[in-house]
Amino acid sequence: MSAIFARETEDERLTPLERWTRVLGGGWIFALLIALIAIFTSLRPEQFASGFNLSMLAVNAAILLVLSIGQTFVIIAGGIDLSVGTVLVFASITSAQIMLWLSGAAGGTYGTTKGGWAVVFIGLVVALASGAFWGAVNGVLVAVAGIPALIVTLGTFGMALGFAQIFTNGTDIRAVPETLVDQIGSGTIGGVPALVVIAAAVAIVGAVVLHLTRFGVHVFAVGSDKEAARRAGINVRRRLIAIYVLSGALAGLAAMMATARFATTTIGGHAMDNLSTISAVVLGGTSLFGGVGSIAGTVVGVFIPIVLLNGFVILGIPPFWQTVATGAVLILAVWIDQLKRSARERS
Amino acid sequence: MKVILGAAAAIAVLVGCSAAEAAEPAVALVLGVKGSPFYQALACGAKAKAKELGLALTISAPDQFAADSQIPVVNAVAATTPAVAVVVPTDAKALIAPMKQLADRGTKIVTVDQTIEDNSFVQTQIVTDNAQGGRLAADAINALLGGKGEVLVITQPPGSAAQDARTTGFEEQLKRYPGITYLGAQYQSDDPQKAAEIVTSTLSAHPKLAGIFATNDQGAIGALTGLRQAGALGKVKVVAYDAASAEVSALKNGGIQALIAQNPKQEGEVAMESAAKLVKGQTLDKTTLTEIVTIKSGETATADKYEYKGDCD
Amino acid sequence: MTTPLLEARAISRRFGHVRALDGADFAVHAGEICALIGDNGAGKSTLVKILSGADRPDDGRILLAGQPVTFNSPNDAQARGVATVYQDLALASDLPPFENLFLGREIMMPGLMGRLGFVNRAAMRRLASEHFERLGVRLRSARTPVSSLSGGQRQSVAIARAAMWADRVILMDEPTAALGVVQTGRVLDLIRQVRDQGIAVVLISHNMPQVLAVADRIEVLRLGRRVARFTAREVNVDRLVAAMTSGLVEERAA
After folding, report:
1. Is the CB of residue A25 less than 8 Å away from at least one CB of chain C?
2. How far apart are CA B50 and CA B253, in angstroms?
3. What is the DSSP letter of C163?
4. Looking at the complex, does the CB of residue A3 fall below 8 Å from at least one CB of chain C?
5. pLDDT of A16 over the 80 cut
6. Under an 8 A CB cutoff, do A306 and B72 touch?
7. Of all helices (H) and strands (E), which one includes residue A238?
8. Among A99, A237, A343, C211, who pairs with A143 as Cys (CB 3.0-4.6 Å)?
9. C92: DSSP letter
10. Residue B302, min C-alpha distance to chain A (Å)
C-alpha cells in the first residue's frame, strides 16, 4: 500500500490581508469588545467601570442573551427566527395571567401580588409551554410544509403579538408576584444578580449542547448542507422542529425574566428584539448561511451593542450618533465574516 | 486594528465636543423616544434654559417609546450620578425600580410629560393637565359637529398615563353632549400607518362618522392619511392633541379643525428651572402644571406660536 | 466466473411514456472496478438510482451475492453494504472530514455521557485518520472544514466515507468530472485502493480514456438495455463509442 497522496504542492502563502483575517477571524470580535471596554473605562473610569454600572450592563444583557442563544441554534441550522420578541410578549401575558388567577389578587392592578414560589413555578411552566407552542408552529411549517423560515416566523411574529393583544385587550398585566420581582428581578444569588445567573446558566448549557453533543453536530450538519445530512440518515425534520421549539421555549424563559425585571408585562416593547438577536448572533461570528457559529461568539455579540449604548450615554454623545455607530459596527462584523469565508474558500 | 484606533479617535472627538465643565452641576435629561417632534421641542427648551442657568445638560433617548428600550439608558445615566435627572418615564410601573436606583445614588429626580405610579422619591412632576386637555377636545368636537354625530377616538394602548387621562377626560366630557354617539377608542401604538388603517376601516363600518379625536401627533397624522385615502378629508372633523409641524400645516389647510396644544418648550424650560432650584437645595411642589391651549382653524398666529419646533441645534 | 456481488437482471423502469430502462442487465464482482457507460439518455442514472436504493424497478430483479433483494431506501441499501457517492458529494462543507465520515453514525462517549448525547470526538478523529491512512488519503489538516480542501481531496473524503460504511459495493457517479489532471490521478488511485480492499466498484463515467485506464471491465448501456460487455484490456475507445451509439451487441463471457 503506497502513499498515494503527496503533499499539496499548491502555493500556500497567504497575502497579509488573508493572514490577518485568519487570525482576527478567530477571536477578533472578543478583542473588539475588550477594546471598547478599555476605551470607555479610560474615558470615564469611575462611571463606566464602577461595580454598579458593570452589574447593570450584565443585567441588561441577560434577557437578550437568553433570546440570542435560541437564535444561535436556529441560524446555525440554516434557519431564522423573527418571532422571538413577540413570542416573548405572548408568553409573558399567558404566564402573568395564570399567576394572577392563582394569586387571586383582588383588583390589585397596580401592585404586586402575594403569589409564592409555587405560583411562580407554574407561571414558568406556562411561559415555557407558550413559547414552545409557537416554536412548534414555526418548526412544523418550516420543516414539514417547507415554507421559508423568514416568511413563517414573520407570520408568527404578527400572530403571537396579535393574540397577546386580543387576550389582554392591549392592556399590560401589571400585578405580578412580588416573589418574582424581588427575588429574581432584583435579587442576587451569591452576590451576582439572579437574572445574570440564569442567563449564564443558559449560555453554558447551550454551549455544551451545541459543541459537545450529537444534537449539536447535527445542527451544524443540517445548516451546512441539509441534503447531505438527510442522506447521512439524520432526521432533518425532527432536528429543525427541535431547534425552533428550543428558540420558542427560551423566549418563554426570557418572558419570565422580563416580567421579573419590569414588574409588568410590556406588550408595547420587544418589537426590535428579533433584529437585536440576529445582529448579536452575526456579530458573534455565526454565519447567516448556516453551518458555522458558537455560543461564546453570541455572548460577545450581545454585549457589544449594550456596551456601546451604555458608554455613549455616559459620555453624553448625541443619541443619533449612537445609532450610526452601532450600525457601522454591525456592517463591519458581517464584512469581516465575508472575508473569512472567501479566504477559506480560496485556499 | 486600524479600524479600532480610528473608532477611538472618533469617539474622543465626539466626547471633546460634548464634554461639560466640571464646575457646572450635571443635569441629565432622558426623553421618551428619539425623533419625536414633541420631545425635540422639549429638548430645545431645556437646552436654551440650561445654558442660561449655567447647568451642564446631557440629553439621551431610547430607540422606542418602551420600557425595555429606555431602562438601559436610565441605567447608564445612573452610572454618571448627575445632580438632577429629568426623565420622561415610558412606563408608569416598569421605570419605578430603575428610577428609584437613581434616587438611591443621590440624584434628585424630576419627571416630565409622563408620570410613574410610585412618585414618593420624585421631587416634582411636570405635567400638563391631560384630563383637562381631553375635556377641551370634547368641547371642541361638540362645537364642530353642532352637537350631533358619531365620534371615534384614536389613542395609544392603555399604560401611558398621559394618553389614558386624555381619553378618559374626553369620554367623561362627552357624556354632557347626548347628541354625540361615541364609537369607542382604537389603539394605534404610535404607528401612523396603523392609525390610517383604523380610520379607513371605521369609515367602512360607519360611513356616517363625523368626528375623530386623536390623542397624539402620530395618531393625528395617520388619521389624516386614512381620511385622505377615503376621500373624507375635511368632511370628517378632526381634533388632535399636540402641535407638531405636520399637524399645524393640516390645521392651516383644513385637514384638522382644532388642535389641543401643549407647550413642550415650556416644559423643558420649567424642568431646567426646577433642576436649578433642586441643586440649590430648595424644595418644590409635587406637581408643576404647564399650559394647554385650544387652537382653532384660522388662528394662524397662535398655531405658529405653539408649533413644536425641534430644530434648535 | 465467480458469482457477481451485485447483479441486475431484466430491470425495467418507465416514467410516464418514457421507457428509461427496458430489460437492462448489469453485474459487478467483488474486488473489481466495473465501468457503466452509455450515451445521454441510455438509462445510466436510472439504473444507478435503482441499484443504490433511491428508486425501485417496475420489473426485474436485483441480486446481492446471489440472493434477491429489495432496497427500500438508500439507507436500506447502505445497511446491506451498498453505498453511493453522488456527483454533489453530499458532504457538510462546514464540518471537518472526520465529522463528515461519521455523520449520522457518531461515536458516543461511554456510559452516562453517551446516553446523554455527548459525542466522542477523540475516538472519531482517531478512527478517521486510521481509515484515511489505510486508503492512502493524505489531507492537509483533519480539523479544517471540508470546504477548505481541494476538489480532489473532497472527492476522496466522500469516497472514503462510502468505503467506511459499505463493505461490499460502492457506486460512483462521475467522480473526476470536475477535477484537474493531477487531482484526477489521485482520485483514481484511491478508487484502485478501494477495489484492492475487496469492494466492488461501479464507476459511471463519460470519459472513455479514463474508463480504459482504471476499469477492469466495462458494460455498455444503450436505450435502456445492456448492449455490450468488455474487459478493458481487449477494447479501445472506438469500439466503446460504437457500442454506445450504434448498439452492436457483443456479449462476451468476461
Report:
1. no
2. 36
3. H
4. yes
5. no
6. yes
7. helix A236-262
8. A237
9. -
10. 31
Cα–Cα distance measured from residue A189 to residue C16, given in angstroms and rounded to the nearest whole number: 70
Q: Which three cell numbers stand for residue B25?
A: 452641576
Average pLDDT over residues C220-240: 88
- pLDDT by residue (tens digit) across A174-229? 788 888 888 888 888 888 899 999 999 999 999 999 999 999 999 999 999 998 89
Hey, where are the domains in chain B? Answer: 23-127+264-290, 130-262
ipTM summary value: 0.83
Whether residue B34 contacts residue B190, with contact meaning beta carbons closer than 8 Å, is answered with: no
Question: Which residues have C-beta within 8 Å of that of residue A326, sequence separation ≥ 6?
Answer: A305, A308, A309
C235-246 pLDDT, tens per residue? 888 888 888 887
- Return the C-alpha cell found at B239: 381634533
Q: Which CATH superfamily is domain B23-127+264-290 in?
A: Response regulator (3.40.50.2300)
Confidence check: pLDDT of A82 > 60: yes
What is d(CA C131, CA C129) in angstroms, rounded to the nearest whole number?
A: 5
Q: Do A39 and B59 touch (CB under 8 A)?
A: no
Contacts of A290 in chain C (CB under 8 A): 94
Which residue would you say has higher pLDDT here, A68 or B230?
Answer: A68
Q: Does C116 touch chain A (CB under 8 A)?
A: yes
Q: Which CATH number does the domain housing residue C19 bear?
A: 3.40.50.300
Is A203 contained in some domain? yes
Could you tell me the end-to-end alpha-carbon distance of chain A, in angstroms, rounded to an integer? Answer: 29
User: Which residue in the set A2, A213, A228 is minimally distant from C119, CB to CB?
Assistant: A213
What is the CATH code for B130-262?
3.40.50.2300
CA distance A13 to chain B (A): 22
The pTM score is 0.81
> Would the CB atoms of A269 and B76 count as touching at under 8 Å?
no
Using one digit for the tens of pLDDT, what is the confidence trace for C75-103? 888 889 999 998 888 899 999 999 999 99
What are the Cα distances from residue B235, in Å, to A161, A218, B207, B296? 34, 63, 11, 16
**Residue B30 pairs with which residues in a beta bridge?**
B60, B87
Interface contact A213-C117, CB threshold 8 A: yes
